[in-house]
């Protein structure tokens, strides 16, 4: 068991999401930065689908009620076990009553905590990912108790030091593919899309990131059609809306770009105020 | 069977969008479902899921699509060999809805705008048989086609922060039911006591794309009684198979 002594800014349990149920209007959800979530599980020897705890900007304070091992990835934010600093991307042994806490953010925006065997919160439609209307909880709160599996804890694992490239949270370029309505844009609009440095606004969450700089828009809305995490829609007012993991399954705005899977992960590590440009790739 | 000019576009690293002419039409819905069914029966092992909207299908693969061209060739073969679906596969669901002023927050507004009495509006709404095109927006939100054009009504200017679960509403040329409380901008004309989404069930939504639904007007007392039965799990939704 893990007790939430103090919740962070926004903590939730996430795995790789609900795939195969979008026909019922159910969002995919899942860890925003799936690269980091999978990495944390890999270092512990978990299955890649094991549920991890995702925290945002300010991490929670957690108390472990059993012996286990953990791994932190993603955001770097002065993690400590009791008073001892611990590093990201490491196999860390935990004793009963150890307290994990976080300090000031140094790099990235979303942190991942994996525990040996994964968090055992409720499974709805084959996934433990929190989502309002699907799971009973949308976020963790102070006092919550999280079940984890009691498994034999290897004293250490033979793992090479795994480094996450700095570009993962610091890249100034996001790789995109042309969206299905890209061809409807004028030459000027395309040019502007590629030359503009975009800024992430405060209206950015697990559903979508809104960008500050817009694009003059004369495109008509489309007949409601599929959207995916990473789809960039152009709204009637000319705003770019980058859909993220908790996005709806369908939408009515032109889909002008599609982020690569890795770029969705990387955008998830960016904070409001961060800037980037798009680089168009061919499939 | 009409053969449509379809366009095949790469949507993402692992998905392809197939588009029909951009309009809402029952014959396009039937054609999409026939194609989708043929693809599902092909047991193509790398296809993860197929979802349709009004006039497009998204085919999601397990991994990066490395040979787009050969995949398109495969899809075209499957479109050419599709078979019309049996009519018996589709159901007509009877959806109780209460149009009482207690729920119908925007009925008066529509009445003024359209120069129709509230009872005429309700009659037009319950007389129509709606096609279920797909489920989207919210878990369990049915996109329906077939609203009488005398009831077309633009979305309200300032969307509500809270629309009740079960709200029956009109947005532009569409009508639908909010499966859960949510923000929303459609004109609310009534409320249905049914559950449109239940994640505990293997099939969380009773209606599928290709089914049809018809609203039946019930009074407030009946609405409340049905609500209790739904909560107790004793309410059976009336349905009949398509008789053509």
UniProtKB/TrEMBL annotation, chain A:
InterPro entries: CT_A_B (IPR003778), Cyclophilin-like_dom_sf (IPR029000), PxpC (IPR052708). It holds the Pfam family CT_A_B. Gene3D superfamilies: Cyclophilin-like (2.40.100.10). GO terms for molecular function: ATP binding; hydrolase activity. Transmembrane segments: none annotated. Residues 23-283 form the Carboxyltransferase domain. It comes from the Bacteria. The keyword DNA-binding does not apply. Keywords: ATP-binding, Hydrolase, Nucleotide-binding. PANTHER family: 5-OXOPROLINASE SUBUNIT C. This is Biotin-dependent carboxylase-like uncharacterized protein.
From TrEMBL, chain B:
Keywords: ATP-binding, Hydrolase, Membrane, Nucleotide-binding, Transmembrane, Transmembrane helix. The chain crosses the membrane at residues 128-147. GO terms for molecular function: ATP binding; hydrolase activity. InterPro entries: CT_C_D, Cyclophilin-like_dom_sf, PxpB. Residues 6-207 form the Carboxyltransferase domain. The keyword Nucleotide-binding applies. PANTHER family: 5-OXOPROLINASE SUBUNIT B. NCBIfam families: 5-oxoprolinase subunit PxpB. This is Inhibitor of KinA. It comes from Gelidibacter algens.
